[in-house]
Every structure is written in C-alpha cells, then in structure tokens.
From TrEMBL:
All residue ranges annotated as the Putative oxidoreductase/dehydrogenase Rossmann-like domain in the record: 9-107
Protein name (database record): DUF2520 domain-containing protein
Family matches, as Gene3D superfamilies: NAD(P)-binding Rossmann-like Domain (3.40.50.720), ProC-like, C-terminal domain (1.10.1040.20)
Region (Disordered): 293-315
Domain of life: Bacteria
Location of the DUF2520 domain: 144-273
Pfam hit, one: DUF2520
InterPro entries (UniProt xref): 6-PGluconate_DH-like_C_sf, DUF2520, NAD(P)-bd_dom_sf, OxRdtase/DH_put_Rossmann_dom, TM1727-like_C_sf
Organism for this UniProt entry: Haliangium ochraceum (strain DSM 14365 / JCM 11303 / SMP-2)
Amino acid sequence: MSAETTLPSVFLVGAGAVATALAGAFARAGVHVSGLWARRAEAASASASAAGVSGFGPALPAALGEAEVVVLAVRDDAIAEVADALWQAGALRPTQVLVHCSGARAAADALGITATRVAGAATMHPLRAITASASATSTLAGTIFGIEGDARGLPLVRALVSAIGGKALALAAEHMTLYHAAAAVASNYTVALIDAAVALLARAGITEAEALAALVPLVEGSVANVAAHGIAGGLTGPIRRGDRDTVERHLGALDALDDDPESARLYRVLGLRATDIARRQRGRTTPAHDAIEALLREPSAPNSKAADPGAGDEH
C-alpha cells in the first residue's frame, strides 16, 4: 500500500482491553472506525465510550458489513467460532478483509473456513501487555506488531500499524507459534521467575512486599543492561565471572530444599543458558566456565546441606 493510498475503514469485534486500545488508537490516528460490537451491550458501550467510537450490541449493525477491514479482538479459542457466526448471520461480506489479533496462530488457521470466504485475511498481534485499566489511554505508538497475512490482508495491516505509530514485524505463517512462544517466555515467564525468587526469599523470612522491593529494581537493571549492551553484554553475576564456588554454594542450598526440587532444576537449566551467554561475551570458552557447566550438569544432590550462600555474594 502506497503512502498516498487512503487508509481502510475499520470495524472492531470485541470489547476487551485489546479491542479498546486498538479502537482508540485507530480513531486518534485518523482511521475511520465505523464501530465496535460485542455480544453484551453494556460491554460494547463501555469499550466504545472509552475509545471514542460508536458501540453496538447485541444486535449486529449494518456498519460491520460496511467497513473494509473487520478486526476480531476476541479470545484465541473463539476466533474461528465468532468469524463463522458473523458470516452465517450475514454480517460479513466477501469483499472484506478479516483480521485477528492472536499471536499464536496464522490467519488462515485461526479464522477457519471464514478465511476462504472473504477477500483477505491477516494477523495483527500487539507485542505488548495491554491491561484493561490502561487500554483506553494506550497510544500503542512504538509497539511492535507481529503481522502476517495473504496478498490482500498483509498490506492493509501493515498500513494500519504504521498509522498508529507501531512497528510491523513481518512473520511467515508457519512461524507464528514460535513467535508467540518467544513472547510468552520473555513476558509471562519473567513473572514466573520473579515468583520463584520471591519464594526463595520467603524461606529467609522476607515478605513478598520486601522481596519485590528488592528484586524489581534488579530485574529492571538487567533489562536496561540488555537494551543498552545486548544479551552478551547484559549478563552479570557469578556465572559471567566464572565463579564456580558461588554457583556450587547456590546449588548446595537449593538441593537442600527437599520440598522444592523445582528450584534447583530451574537454576540448573537457566545456569547452562547463562554459561553459554558468558562464553559469547568472551568470544571463547574458559576452564572456569567449563567447570561451571560440568557442575550444572551434575545430578542434583538431595538432602545436601550448605552454609547460607547469601553472605557477601555479588548478584
């Protein structure tokens, strides 16, 4: 789509955080949003009001069939069902382009048979955590969008992403699930890692509030280091330094937790990853890092006892 081409009109289906954020971002960017629909009228009204667009529900409005692009911002497991229901109800036209917002599946798969009934199909997934409380004011500027689609749909979603100040990350259909898995590891599993660290600190008598106050700045600093210096340059701590003794003390303390074998396993798996990063940082392996890898690959030692590993360690 050229810069001179008029942006398509858009209708959104859904009333959740993503639908609200997209509707508001499109409207503020000058994209004609012909409306937003949801099965529950009160939900549609609240979402549309927050976004500054027209809301409809539960009856399907004519405006849905008049838009050039229909965006389904609904649960992943409901996409195909909703698309088919809209088609069976006569709300969709064969000249329209149908877009969904899931990152886990390509459009041809997620939309089911309805993808073959319309003129084009595409994926437009915001790579960002959008909460209900922030959705109405979210500009989405600078947000990465994972996009894919057919010859008709892909240029349209690329243009829409550009219009709201986003950045398009074009993906092949067969890579969508890997892309989404990567996003889950980076976002969702960061929370899980923090939870694991909080649980360990709880054994030392530290409350969750105290643990978060200590750990969140640590996590933020690590993310800032990666942003500034890349992955290899962002690694700190005992594995980067090649400090086998500290790693051994950590493992001894974790292996002693008879009621929590998962913490030691998690430490070993992530420690091996960190060892690979440390080698990349140095551009070579070292005897110290070889020794750490060997230690991390040793089977856990249940009931092993270790002195408090926390005294004087650099994190």
